[in-house]
Design goal:
Elements lengths: L1 H19 L3 H6 L6 E2 L22 E3 L9 E5 L7 E11 L5 E13 L6 E8 L4 E8 L7 E6 L7 E11 L4 E14 L8 E4 L3
Antiparallel strand pairs: 1-10, 2-3, 3-10, 4-9, 5-8, 5-10, 6-7, 6-9, 8-11
């Protein structure tokens, strides 16, 4: 009888600990900083979350360049015909209420030869695909990874699209952009962000 009582006690304690412990899924969704990731497939390793609108230079997933682990999203023209085109990748996000919303991503821009008439940009669209805020734009040919981060808390409790685009004008150089490790987090408090992009230090 004493043995059965001991076994029952151990089982009850184990069950209590299992119930009290957060699940692995919950730990993945909420980081140690208390922020909750609300984007899907930010590392571009699966085929979920993102869409590539039809275009003469339609974007796609790529292994040609990547920040981690093995793929990124490629926008624009690397080789082939230089055609007038808008090449985009975007994801619809239903943003919950919260105290802060932080968008971060890595990008690898190129424009060969550099073409000031082309354009690379990242923006936030509303549910009707109308631009609400352009976070970054330019024509860069770093051919290296840049880290970018912005506070976008004005979009809390809204439905938005996170959008990245490359426009080629069909003349001069070919312009492209690789995008990887995109993160959109709801956080308990605002924190320091770059409000721009910086080259990643090796």
């Amino acid at each position: 009888m004493r043995t059965l009582t001991l076994v029952a006690t151990v089982l009850l304690l184990a069950a209590a600990l299992w119930i009290a412990s957060p699940s692995e899924t919950a730990l993945q969704a909420q980081g140690g900083d208390g922020c909750t990731e609300i984007l899907v497939n930010g590392d571009m390793e699966s085929y979920t979350g993102w869409s590539f609108p039809s275009s003469p230079a339609q974007g796609s997933y790529s292994t040609a360049q990547y920040h981690s682990p093995t793929r990124s999203a490629r926008l624009g023209i690397i080789d082939g015909n230089n055609v007038f085109s808008f090449s985009s990748v975007r994801q619809k996000v239903i943003v919950p209420a919260g105290n802060a919303l932080i968008l971060e991503w890595y990008m690898y821009p190129l424009s060969v030869p550099h073409d000031a008439e082309d354009l690379q940009y990242v923006n936030i669209l509303n549910s009707k695909l109308r631009e609400q805020r352009r976070l970054w734009s330019g024509v860069r040919n770093d051919q290296d990874w840049l880290a970018c981060s912005f506070d976008v808390s004005e979009f809390l409790d809204q439905t938005i699209y996170v959008n990245m685009t490359v426009r080629n004008d069909g003349n001069g150089g070919r312009t492209a952009l690789f995008v990887d490790d995109v993160s959109l987090k709801v956080c308990p408090a605002r924190r320091n962000t770059l409000e721009g992009c910086l080259l990643v230090t090796p």
